[in-house]
Amino acid sequence: MRQLTSLDAQFLSVETSRTYGHVGGLAVYDPSTAPGGQMEIGDVCRLVGERLHLLPVFRWRLAQVPFNLDLPYWVDDPDFDIDFHIRESAVPPPGDDGKLAETVARIFARPLDRARPLWELYLIQGVEGGRVALLTKIHHAVVDGVSGSEILSILLDPSPEGREIPPPPPEADGGERPPGDLQMLARGLLGLPRQPLRAVKALPTTLPNVTELPGANALPGMPTLTRALTGVRRALGSDEDPNVLEVTTARPPRTCFNGPISAHRRFAFGSLSLDTVRRIKNELGVRVNDVVVALCAGALRGWLEERDELPDDPLVAMVPVSVRTTEERGTFGNRVSMMVVPIPTNESNPGRRVQRTHEYLRRAKERHRALPANLLTDATRFIPPAVMALAARTTVDVLGRTRPPVNVVISNVPGPREPLYCAGAQLQAHYPVSVVVDGVGLNITVMSYRDHLDFGIVADREQVDDVWSLLAGAGRALDELKSLVGGSKRPRVTRSPAGAGR
Known about the structure:
By secondary structure, this protein is an alpha+beta fold. It has helices spanning 6-13, 41-50, 82-85, 97-108, 145-155, 181-191, 194-206, 222-235, 242-249, 274-284, 288-306, 350-369, 375-380, 385-401, 468-484, and strands at 2-3, 22-30, 60-63, 73-76, 86-90, 119-127, 131-139, 265-273, 315-322, 336-343, 408-413, 421-422, 425-433, 442-449, 452-460. The strands form three sheets. A six-stranded mixed beta sheet has the order 5-6-7-2-13-12, with helices on both faces.
């Protein structure tokens, strides 16, 4: 048995009929490299089954403590059925990207069954061009970005022929029965005295850094407190930039995608040239992530301008950051923190937008490096498990109906540069599919693979009328930057159907 951390449990607690807590990805494959030129559901089941002992999280299911006296546990599912978790679907004709995105949005809006291990794979047939897609759903309580990438590295191979998989250890064949309600109740009662101790241990980490918690700037009095603490740091020798501080502590402006969300989603995906982005970052003397965030800022600026809704102040983004150490690789769960960063959507000049993005991110990283790695986990330890779900949902609901803690989530995940294969089929692209919550109805996640950046944009269907135009806006922003540094060939987002997803 393995107990969830308070941060892991938070991803369970925020779930409602409108909010889901799972993440995943849409992988598109070319089956022509697979044996027989096909990728079938049996191939996927066989591949996962052979590697199941390398993926213990695929057999974990939740064991709740009665009356929520303590945090839940992961236990091995004695009734694990791989056929329940690996399913088959198809894209309606003509199988273009618009239809594929609609299929993904529909599947992803369904919650996972908490009575079983919290993951599903969907093999999607009928994709145009003879391609197939594999949609992954796995709960955020189980994995973060890094541990999700570790799962992909186990499922994928460096060649069509596959690789030798070590046999399962003898003890992996055992089937220990999960504890019953009385046993879990006893665990919960024994754990009660430890809860105040967990909170006390978290005090030295949390209290001095409370103003740096994600969303703190949306709470009354927090911007003033942040300015006061930063003034003290500057008096002690810190080189805080007052201009950066002003937008960092400001409350985010409200946009159309910063209200209570519905149960329905929109999804769009596409790719941009990583080589072009690298050339731009070299010319401008910035980082790849600076260019990616600037592209997102340019896309958001254009999208809001078209609707006459562009705020005068910059939007504020939440940027996930992994704090997983080398020793923690392979342990799954969440080892993540967040940076809250203004993005220059109020800057019309593409070059200055990149430079301002670079400055904002640089300062945010400096502030983040000064924070304890466990800040986000420690901050959640103050909430008793018995009221954790109510507290999490109430907080998200209040922020969603008053002032957003942030405007958008932007994440950039580095991926492999070499081609990868699943059951012999070559991976063409891997588009992340993430979550939205009340108050933050838009998520832009990017993953690099080979020579391209794969964008996955998830939005609340009632708040965002067209996600494909956001994707096209990122392509136009890259076009502007390439022209700025003297490029020749026009970069664009690939396979973005005009009007799709409206």
